[in-house]
Amino acid sequence: MRVVGSLIGARRGRLGLLAGLVLAFSALLPASSSAATAATRAKGLDVSNWNGTINWSKVAAAGYRFAFGKATEGTSYSDATYTTNRNGSETAGLVFGAYHFARPAGGSDAGATASAIAQANHFLAVAGPQPAELPPVLDLETTGKLGDARLLVWTLAWLQQIYARTGVVPFVYTSPNFWKASLANSTAVAAAGTELWIAHWTSASNPLVPALNWNGEGWTFWQWTNCVSIPGIKRCSDADRMNGTTPAAVAIQPYPAGLPLLSAPPTIVGLSEAGQLLAAVPGTWAGGKPLQFSYQWRRCDAAGANCAAISGATAQSYRPVSDDVGHSLKVLTTATSAAGSAAASSPPTAAVSPAGTPPTARPTDLTPPQILGTAQAGQALTASAGTWTGSPKTFAYRWRRCNAVGASCVAIPYATQSHYTLTPDDIGWTLSLIVTATGAGGSTSATAAVTGVVVAAPLPPASIERQTVRRGIAGNVQTDDGRASVTWQPGAVRVGRTVLLDTFTGSLSVPGSEVSLAVPGSSKSFKWPLDLVYAQPQPNRTVLGYSTDGKVYYSVPPLAPPQLPAGTAVGRFVDSSNHTHVLTRTPLQLSLFKRGAWGDPTYTSPSGPKLTTQVPLEVLPHLSDQSLLLLTRLSLAAQARISATVTGPGGRTVPILGKGSRLGARLQAGRAYRIVRA
User: Fold this and answer.
1) Counting Cβ atoms within 10 Å, is residue 131 exposed (0-12), middle (13-18) or buried (19+)?
2) By Cβ atoms counted within 10 A, which residue in 83, 261, 362, 373 is the most buried?
3) pLDDT grade, residue 600 (50/70/90)?
4) 154 shares its domain with 77
């Protein structure tokens, strides 16, 4: 056994600070074992202006696969070599990432939060992390004289701000000794999903990892030495290894496009006391990335209502003034992506107390909130707020829809009560709940564990021709001859309405294909689609048409995938059994038509056939038998039926051209007629 030292080098920080010494006892491994382990780990390095000019082609030729470069420090310093190192390393084929040297500060939780957010914003402005680069890194080597609890607040605030703006989970760089001594060996950062770049300078085959092996996740990058000779760099340099062979595997994925979508609402950190700093945390957002945030503080009544914007209060932090005493405060956060903006408000603070009021602790959850109920469409979920310290006076609720593994959560519009009824939109998703507790000391949010994946409500036995809609129960109606059936999930049709599914006989449709879906007394469309399915596969050379007025038929458009998009009334798809499904948000009539024959809705013109050519009527008398020849030529942009009549004495009309091309009745000789339409 031998003692192996670990020291974070002074040159990583601009002012040159030693981070401490870690002593560890490590069993000596055979050289061949260490070499084999190193061979399975990608080689990398980290650099700053201290390294001077670098020949990145030589670095790449020496087998180095990735590099981290210093971008910023504190709220104003930018490394002069950052852009050069970034461009040079990427041109040489290395995967590059940026790090920020932390300068923690703040005399309160709000001050620490504001400091961290300001430094995160400075880092993003300079570093501009891009897809295919390594995630941003927080280089944490100094405490700024913050205690372990407040330093943890600062650290989490920096990491959360990076995630809120980019959707990328950052890394933390630290040493085992610093984390144990300065952050009480907390597992909170690791539990939040943050990966570790550990600094432990040793010849052992593995580093020491704090926070219970980083909450069981281990390390991703390891700075194993502070001085190694690397071709292309004059001074000895920091060298790193990846716990894997492919740095690109942990690189930033392409940023999503689109409008911002609220996932978790903004919150306010700090005591609601005149003169005390408050800090806004912008919440989390799905949708387009990266984001910019802007703020507007608002003064409300003590209950958090009747709010008005505070003039000039548009910074991320705010100090209440005497005019705020007795009022609660909110902050309106606007998130802006390349596609546009969206805004969300925080819950209100407690009423602002006069300056000098003894501070009260913010609420802290002792046991997390819970979601009670069955994850099935139509069922009601209820929230248990959990248990809290800090004597919270009010609780606010925000229900969210998440993917099947409980990630990528998006707030459900208007779902802000302590209960929520699952809808057809929730099928295939999980549900999450954020509870925000507000007391005299401020507000704190806690998240409940997600539900299981929401399933569809089971279908009841089919009713013939009609069924009354019941709360929380799916529907299933079949025609009397079994040619078609319609089903729906709870919430699609108003409770108490009756759904009718009948057959009828059409004049142009394929016999036996006509189906009518109606909901008497309901003039509005269905909130969620109903699924009407034919019992037999659709015959070849037929077209499926629908009508909402029983007169004009339209082709039912195909759906791919088999989902009805928002704003679309009707669509069809064919299932694996070759049965045709029609998803509809409106009552309708359905029929099949022979392709190209009369009635084929492919050629429907709702406003009537459009004439493209019309030759004036020409009348040619035939002298030998006193008959008349009427000539004209019509060109139409659609299939149509043409009829013509003439009007005789006394207003009597006689058809001279019936439906299609059939000739009508013969006219009586010796009488005068006037042609009225053709």
Assistant:
1) exposed
2) 362
3) confident
4) yes
Q: Does 97 share its domain with 237?
A: yes
Please compute the mean of the pLDDT values over residues 443-457 and round it to a whole number: 93
Q: How many domains does the chain have?
A: 4
Of 334-348, 381-395, 606-620, the range with the lowest mean pLDDT is 606-620
Q: Coil, strand or helix: which one is 658?
A: coil
Q: Copy the structure tokens of residue 398.
A: 């925000």
Domain with residue 307: its CATH number is 2.60.40.2700
Q: Which of these, 493, 491, 536, 537, lies nearest to 517 by C-alpha position?
A: 493
Q: What is the pLDDT of residue 34?
A: 46
Of the residues 603, 630, 655, which one is the last residue of a structural domain? 603
Give the closest residue to 282 by CA, choosing from 272, 274, 292: 292
Contact yes or no for 448/426 (Cβ under 8 A): no
pLDDT of residue 6: 29
Note whether 422 and 468 are same-domain residues.
no
Let me know if residue 205 belongs to a domain. yes
3-class SS at 181? helix
455 with 378: CB under 8 angstroms?
Answer: no
Residue 90 structural domain: 2-250
Residues 192 and 119 in one domain: yes
- The answer to whether residue 452 is domain-embedded is no
Letter for the amino acid at 596?
Answer: G
Q: Which residue has the tokens 């903006």?
A: 341
Q: How many CB atoms lie within 10 A of CB 417?
A: 12
- Whether the ω angle into residue 369 lies within 30 degrees of 0, i.e. cis, is no
Pairing of strands 77-78, 21-26: unpaired
Looking at the domain assignment, is residue 314 inside a domain?
yes
Pair (291, 383) in one structural domain: yes
- Give the bridge partners for 628, in sequence order: 621
Mean pLDDT of the chain: 86
For residue 456, being part of any structural domain is answered with no
DSSP 581-637: EEEESS-EEEEEEETTSTT-GGG--TT-PPEEEEPPPEEEEETTTTEEEEE--EEES
The number of C-alpha atoms within 13 Å of 100 and in the hemisphere containing its C-beta is: 32
What is the number of alpha carbons within 13 Å of residue 121 lying toward its C-beta? 15
300 & 412 share domain: yes
Q: How far is CA 260 from CA 255, 409, 414, in A?
A: 12, 12, 17
Amino acid making up residue 408: S
Radius of gyration of the chain (CA): 36
Q: Are 105 and 111 in contact (CB under 8 A)?
A: yes
- DSSP per-residue letters across 19-56: --EEEEEEPPPPHHHHHHHHHTS-EEEEE-GGG-S--H
Residues 281 and 396 in one domain: yes
In three-state secondary structure terms, 272 is: coil
Q: Given pLDDT bands bounded at 50, 70 and 90, which one contains residue 262?
A: very high
User: Considering Cα of 508, then 512, then 514, then 520, what sign does the dihedral take?
Assistant: positive
The pLDDT, as a whole number, for residue 637 is 53
For residue 397, list its beta bridge partners.
Answer: 435
Same domain, 218 and 341: no
What amino acid occupies position 515?
V
Q: What are phi and psi of 630, to 5 degrees?
A: -105, 125
pLDDT tens, position by position, 163-208: 999 999 999 999 999 999 999 999 999 988 899 999 999 999 999 9
Question: Which of 227, 250, 273 delimits the end of a domain?
Answer: 250
CATH number for the domain spanning 523: value is: 2.60.220.30
| pTM, to two decimals | 0.66
